[in-house]
Automatic annotation (TrEMBL):
Pfam family, one: GntR
DNA repair as UniProt keyword: no
Coiled-coil ranges (or none): none
Keyword Translocase applies: no
Protein name (record): GntR family transcriptional regulator
Origin species: Corynebacterium lipophilum
InterPro entries xrefs: Bact_HTH_transcr_reg, Chorismate_lyase_/UTRA_dom_sf, Tscrpt_reg_HTH_GntR, UTRA, WH-like_DNA-bd_sf, WH_DNA-bd_sf
Segments traversing the membrane: none
Keywords associated with the record: DNA-binding, Transcription, Transcription regulation
Residues annotated as domain HTH gntR-type: 4-74
Molecular function terms from GO: DNA binding; DNA-binding transcription factor activity
One GO BP annotation of this record: negative regulation of DNA-templated transcription
Length: 237
């Protein structure tokens, strides 16, 4: 097995101290020169380690007389597989949640969406672009596609739906099944602008499918800031 680069090992060690609460939110990390002596590496190696933690949203750097490198408060834990929607989970953490509809149109969808729905590539699908905010800060960017014929039922955001949720649709309560695929990614220029991200900042990308019975009714691509939430996946064995 290849040995980890020194800056990655240092970042792992500092991250472990933060996650174990050995270093609390608001605590100041040792100065770079002390970390250099502590780990026996070059100053540039220490800076690379701190850059990595800053990209992850774990630490923040402040300038000035009272400046330095500080531990950030860890973002809330959001249960991707929970029975409470993402929106409701943010609210439960005491955050003020709001959404902005950027665009809504009927247009041909990308091939991955067309294939998932099994529709003709020329079909026009209801397509919505939204940005979701917590305490006024952008946390999720979302694009949703709805199967033709289901627009009146599923025109809202996919983050409002929870696992196993039943919805009252004209006296009928269809059982909804949700499938999520989570993976790290680099945002597009448009996503980076929507989420106010610096260049080279990674994101969590979630491909979400909502099924009514065995019928796929909504396909969504969700991009989440890594410093907005700790995403947890729980499976009952």
């Amino acid at each position: 097995m290849a040995k980890k680069p020194a800056y990655v090992a240092i970042a792992d060690a500092l991250r472990s101290q933060i996650e174990s609460r050995e270093l609390e939110p608001g605590d100041k990390l040792p100065p770079e020169r002390e970390l250099v002596d502590m780990y026996g590496v070059a100053r540039m190696t220490v800076r690379h380690a701190l850059d990595l933690l800053q990209l992850e949203g774990i630490i923040e750097r402040k300038r000035g007389r009272t400046g330095g490198t500080f531990v950030r408060a860890l973002p809330p834990i959001i249960d991707l597989t929970g029975k409470v929607s993402l929106t409701e989970q943010f609210i439960a953490h005491g955050l003020d949640v709001s959404s902005e509809l950027i665009s809504e149109t009927a247009a041909p969808a990308p091939q991955i969406v067309v294939s998932a729905f099994g529709v003709d590539s020329r079909d026009k699908l209801l397509t919505s672009e939204l940005v979701h905010f917590a305490n006024g800060n952008p946390v999720f960017a979302e694009t949703t596609y709805v199967r033709p014929g289901y627009e009146s039922k599923y025109s809202r955001s996919s983050v409002d739906y929870a696992r196993g949720q039943r919805t009252d649709l004209g006296g009928v309560t269809p059982h909804l099944r949700r499938e999520d695929i989570l993976f790290p990614a680099n945002p597009t220029d448009k996503e980076r602008e929507s989420l106010s991200l610096a260049a080279n900042t990674p994101v969590h990308r979630i491909t979400r499918k909502l099924f009514e019975g065995d019928t796929l009714v909504m396909f969504a691509s969700i991009v989440a800031r890594t410093d907005a939430a700790q995403i947890r996946i729980v499976e009952e064995l």
